[in-house]
Amino acid sequence: MVALEGDLVVDAVPAISKRLAAIAGPGERVEVDLSAVTDIDSAGVALLSLFLKRMDASGREVALVRVPDSVKVTLELFPFVGARVAPDVERRAVFDRVGAWAEGIADLVLHFLVVAADTSWFVVTGVFKRRGVRWHVMFYEMAQMGSKALGVVSLIAFLVGATMALQSAAQLRQFGADIFVVDLIGISMTRELGPLMAAIVVAGRSGSAVAAEIGTMMISEEIDALKTMGLHPTRFLVVPKILAITITQPLITAFADAAGILGGFLVATFYLDVGAESFIQRLQESLFLKDVVTGLIKSVIFAWLIVSVGAICGFRTRGGADAVGRSTTTSVVAGIFAVIVADALASLVFYFGD
To answer: Residue 120: what are its φ and ψ, rounded to 5°?
Structure first.
């Protein structure tokens, strides 16, 4: 068995090629242990390819064993080399799997904290600098994340508000409490459903776009080019998006609240025979400014989570085009999950705060 370690990149190829050149002639099966390899590039793959061809010519069987997932992704891009990766049949102990899982979670949390800290720093310092923020990019992102998402968010909120009023009408009619549909629609839309629906739609629409954009730049080495030019990727890419969504998300949420209440208003007026004046009067009595502000505060928290999760998924993209697809899918699922968890926690905080 031959064990390789460290970075299998262009600078390390000469030294590693000497070790592999010592294996010559016919013989038994050769296993190349890559468990200690931390990184590999095209030069390293070319070296392994030449070694495999030389072993094939001498009639010796070669297998690449214990290949890390990060290295395996690169090797699979080259079918001749990727086909020699031996399947991992070794079953790790339960504690090993739990430890690996915990290590991955800790690395993800650390990466999230680093991105959040960098973003906060560059936002605070950039706003007070003359050229600290790319304002024209921020306005472009506002159009992409805000105005172009307004239609679908408003339509969904309108339908949800109308459906909720329609479903509650049968129960309220039994007690002659038709007017209380106003309380149900007004409070639930402003405090809960409006911010949540807007965030879920934006997470699927804009969060995936952030992950796809940054992920594509990762695999095309544009992020490395930014670092070479002295530009911090977080300040250059993430900060305009954070500023844009911080402004647009509360506005989208406000439109979602209005659309949902409008849907409930139409159902209450035409189906429950609640007069328009009675609906508006009851809405003014039951809905307080605190309810609206609570939803808007939650929408800002959701906005930060959506962009942060999308950026992290993009920065962690490794491999080829399929990796961008996986990162995009992960950003949508993780973004919606983060929004729902944050919504539950925020609801508890505001509930006990009342």
So the answer is: -60, -40
